Structures
1.
Amino acid sequence: MRTRTKIKIVAALLALVAAGCQGPQTTAPAVVTRDHTTSVEELARQLGLSVEDRDDAFVVLRGGGNTVLIFTHSDGRFFVNGKPIGSVGMVRKVGQTVYVAESLVSQIRPHLGAPITPSRPQPRVLRGNIVIDPGHGAHDPGTTSVTGVHEKTINYDVAEKVAAILERRGLGVTMTRQRNEYTELEARAEIANRRNADLFVSIHADSAPSPSAQGFTVYIANAASADSQRAARDISRAMATTGLENRGVRREDYRVLRTSRGPAVLVEMGYLSNRQDALRLQDSAFQDKLAAAIATGILDYLQ
Ligand SMILES: [Zn+2]
């Protein structure tokens, strides 16, 4: 056993040296072999943390004022105290147990307990879990823009950017679908219900017969709770800063809103049937701005 342990240590050191050779700008890749994996529980134990939250997509480890967020799909990212550190590499799931590369221990440890510099205070880490629903997907393209881009693609691009911003703030974020997947409407809301989400945000883009119709609308269900109304107002106010025309908060019994038991909103980001809106919504820099605004609205609601 002792010899095996030594071999393991030597292998780990070699891995670190190899990672170090790649220069300071590159993130050390997770060194993974079939035998060098560890369960996330064991990973947490080795780091002096405990598993605080998890679902199919991520695990949150906390302890001693540190938060480690690991996305448990292959090549998902991991974050320490809101800072992206690298890729988790290979992930193996056996029943309920998730195995990740043992080398994550040495990749995470140096980032734990980093003191917060008083001159640059870090944003407050919020607790909570948000479900982001990129509308449509796969065989259901949604509407198509005047320039030929599918709504499902724009929805996903913006949703992913919103999720990344919220994750950096330490929030647990669940996406209802992956890029090329479709999830049934009831299942989307059910994800939020099951996770007892603080907020469900469905992301869509609109279409109208008139090419002049433009602007964003935030929808809530007819019987929306006070929390849903407040979330819609916060998101609408933040989105108005993007320069998109503000069509206000409206009520409509969309299936995902009606099926959600907790606070839920549906954002129509703009009209893909309008040339100006369409060009903005498919532009990556504008998507960044829009995603930042939606995330700000969500964070305002959670404060
Ligand atoms: Zn749609």
2.
Amino acid sequence: MRNNDVIVIGGGLAGLFAAAVAARQGRKVRVLAYGAGALNIGGGIIDVLGYGYDARPLSSPEAGLADLPPEHPYHKIGRTALADALAFFQDITVAEGYEYQGSLQEMQWLPTAAGTLKPTCLLPKTMNPAVLKQTDRVYVVGFDYLKDFYPQLVARNLQPYFKHQTFTADLCSLNFAEGRDVSSLDIARWLDTPEGQDSFLKQLKRKVEPGSAILIPPVLGTQPDYTLAGKLEAELKCRFVETAALPPAVTGLRLRTLLLNYLKKQGVIVVEKALVSGAMVDQGLCTAVMTENFDRQRTYQAKAYILANGGFYGGGLVAQPGRVIEPIFNIPVAAPEAQEDWSNAQLFSGEKQQFAQLGIQVDEAMRPLSADGSILLSNVHVAGKSLGGYDFCFEKSGNGVALASAYQAAISC
Ligand SMILES: Cc1cc2nc3c(=O)[nH]c(=O)nc-3n(C[C@H](O)[C@H](O)[C@H](O)COP(=O)(O)OP(=O)(O)OC[C@H]3O[C@@H](n4cnc5c(N)ncnc54)[C@H](O)[C@@H]3O)c2cc1C
């Protein structure tokens, strides 16, 4: 069996990116992945920091970094490693032919499927919100039977933000079975086919004037490349802007495909359906992890381990009455004793949720800490949503923390 330098637990964004960074460091890397995590349902765009600690919208993602409290992951990782992580991520997207654009210095306000604007940092080129301001006509195009995107609603809600553009809403027909429940992934698959592309083009040519921008849900193909967008834009002489995704997230799936393609070229082994059930630890050093499968238990050994198995929805943290458990290493996670203190009674109170900030505390090398601040496991590094100290929904920082912590964990191995 191949010796591993690094074993990564979890195949979400943090796990796949940590594997990419470790491979670039010349390490032999194996990923034990149980599903795609939040990449399946959201997550194709990289939010770094949209709102400051006082909940005010930031002028740029980096503008709020200095004010973050000591327990925030960015505080431990530091601005330099965050910038290096984003730069390496962008390098990978360029190498794989699906470049992400944006920077720490500029906030991108991306339209959502509800017609609001969401602050983010790095995006695929087909989601560039600046395109909307480079024209005076924006067509918001939805699809028959797609329940998650109402073009009239999107156009009406966005219009007040755009004084020099006229928004018009329209619908495209799909040749799908009558009454079928349709998702954006179905439409992206349809647009992967020549028949789908021809039908879409014919309909748009009748509706849209050259020089316009076309705002659509993220449906421009399932694959991480710009060939389809380029072809449609050349035929229509228009530019497309895809909105932020609703689940199932085509943009998240494109990013997952991109990262898996990259990892394969770097010689990283990704073991799918590998549910890590426990670990062997000897005097603060992890010596092996075990996976449980329908046939048998397997043991994997490495010099270092990156724990990137997500938060509550990923399975990296488990909530039980009055306590939170990290199920593989049994790392302690502090939580308020009274469960009613885990959340605000008012969901939209404008304040962070306590439960969202629960998670593992780490040092600067992302190693897990005990309640008294001592290092619990010297060769285990934590990345992604199982970290405590931030509420990604509130501050819009989910994938930024995933990338930065994965980078820091991998270079610290
Ligand atoms: C609906 C939704 C939309 C979002 N949209 C955005 C967005 O637009 N922009 C943004 O920046 N952020 C967004 N986020 C947040 C962002 O997706 C997360 O912060 C980020 O993906 C966390 O990545 P992760 O790899 O840490 O965790 P996850 O994506 O949860 O991945 C963890 C992985 O580990 C696996 N795992 C768990 N236990 C084990 C085990 N024992 N053995 C092996 N594997 C295991 C899980 O199955 C999962 O595949 C969104 C989140 C959600 C839920």
